[in-house]
Amino acid sequence: MNPFSNIFQEEEFGMSLTIGVLKESSPHEHRVALDPEVTKRLVKKGLQILVEASAGEDANFFDNDYESAGAKVVDRNAVIEQSNIVVMIDNPDEQTRSQFKSGQLILGLLNSLTVTDEMTEFAKNKVNVLSFDLLPRTISRAQTMDVLSSQSSVAGYKAAVIASDLYPKYFPMMITAAGTIKPAKVLVLGTGVAGLQAIGTAKRLGAIVSGYDIRPASRGEVESLGATFLTSSVSNGAGSGGYARQLTDEEQEAQHKELAEFIAQNDIVITTAQVPGHKPPLMVTEDSVQNSKPGTVFVDLGASDLGGNVAGSKPFETVVTDNHVTIVGAGDLASRVANSSSQLFAKNVQAVINYVIEDDQIQIDPTDDVLTGLAAVYDGEIINARLRKALDLPELPKPEEPAEDSETKEES
Ligand code: NAD
């Protein structure tokens, strides 16, 4: 059976579609998936928007802002009960997951490759899931939906700002009548979207900045920001889709040795290394932390329950070691710039909504590789190829329908 054949029908949901916005359940999550500006645009398009009371408060968007934008502010149960599409930032808690209904569509940054059991549960309950972590980011028409980029960019900026705040010296060189202060040296490990933004911000703050990555292609991007690229001994660490590959044990050992030298020469180390579907690679060992100068600041964007890039980093915590080194467990930095990151997230959500709704129906076109990439679960089936591989499920056959020209489908 073609798993995409069952699209939402108008008669199942009434004349117009309803989008629900949940308040995030984690105490560390301050973002909200829709802001009042995007809400207003969607209402103008004829959609009904339900927002859970106080959903945007931590991001400085208040219930009356949503009401002025044309949304209804209701309680959580009403959002879940009455919405065709429910949008959120992070994975819903267990209670919320159990409330979603068959045929409903949920959209968020749901880390589907690491919570495969949740995806299996959604499939069992016929809850349809679009998960931003699966978006094929290199397809040009998907770029307006790219939450990973919009949020990483915010996180990279904040990493440099936090580092400058915790570092007990100036970032820029200061020549004053009272003497000269040397500029700070900042090293950024992993120079993807977050790393490049951290480099740009640290440069603007006046530091001397270098970047390190195992993808040789990132050299040009680092150098174009005026930073020095540190060449890795790891022979081409690029994997598929522009991402890094996982290193072998030998490569990782060699990397730890070369990085120990680079780290000891710097005052600030910002780490952003990720490998999709795997826990973040350890880049700064316990020995490197011990050999760092007093006052050194590590900001670990990889810090999560899965581990981090820096030995000793703890998610959501700032630790000061016995040798006076500060380690910030900073996996939540986009949430710490909640207003701006929510505005960008909302634009990404708007792009997806515009893309999937046609003629007052939700259409998941089986021949559209943006949608087949973004969709984790549809009509009771795990349909995403990467997720199926992670779950050891066989590949699905290609859809039988003749392909509509998907290149012509643009965001309206
Ligand atoms: P990411 O968050 O997956 O990882 C961050 C960085 O860590 C990457 O640069 C990666 O190479 C690096 N890394 C991983 N393991 C490492 C290790 N052991 N040692 C050193 N560095 C390591 O990456 P991202 O920010 O999502 O970007 C990944 C790629 O996708 C980049 O090439 C980026 O330019 C590209 N991208 C393309 C588009 C597009 O085409 N529209 C959009 C976004 C990102």
What does this structure look like?
- There is one protein chain.
- Helix content is 32%, strand content 16%.
- The N terminus and C terminus are likely disordered.
- The strands form four sheets. It has an eight-stranded mixed sheet with strand order 3-2-1-4-5-6-18-19, with helices on both faces. Strands 11-10-9-12-13-15-14 form a seven-stranded mixed sheet, with helices on one face. Strands 7-8 form a two-stranded antiparallel ribbon.
- It is α/β, with parallel strands linked by helices.
- It contains 14 helices and 19 strands.
- The longest helix is centred in the middle third of the chain and has 20 residues.
- It has two domains: 201 residues, NAD(P)-binding Rossmann-like Domain (Rossmann fold), CATH 3.40.50; 188 residues, 3-Layer(aba) Sandwich (Rossmann fold), CATH 3.40.50.
Number of strands: 19
* First-to-last CA distance: 31 Å
Number of helices: 14
Structural class determined from secondary elements? alpha/beta
Note poorly predicted spans. Answer: 1-15, 406-412
Side-by-side strand order of the widest sheet: 3-2-1-4-5-6-18-19
pLDDT averaged residue by residue: 92
In terms of quaternary structure, what is this? Answer: single chain
CATH H-level homologous superfamily name of the largest domain: NAD(P)-binding Rossmann-like Domain
**Fraction of residues in H or I helices:** 25-40%
Bound molecules: nicotinamide-adenine-dinucleotide
Strand content: 15-25%
- How large, in whole angstroms, is the Cα Rg? 23 Å
- CATH class category label of the largest domain: Alpha Beta
CATH second-level architecture of the largest domain: 3-Layer(aba) Sandwich
- Major sheet characteristics: 8 strands, mixed
The number of domains:
2
CATH topology of the largest domain: Rossmann fold
Shape: globular
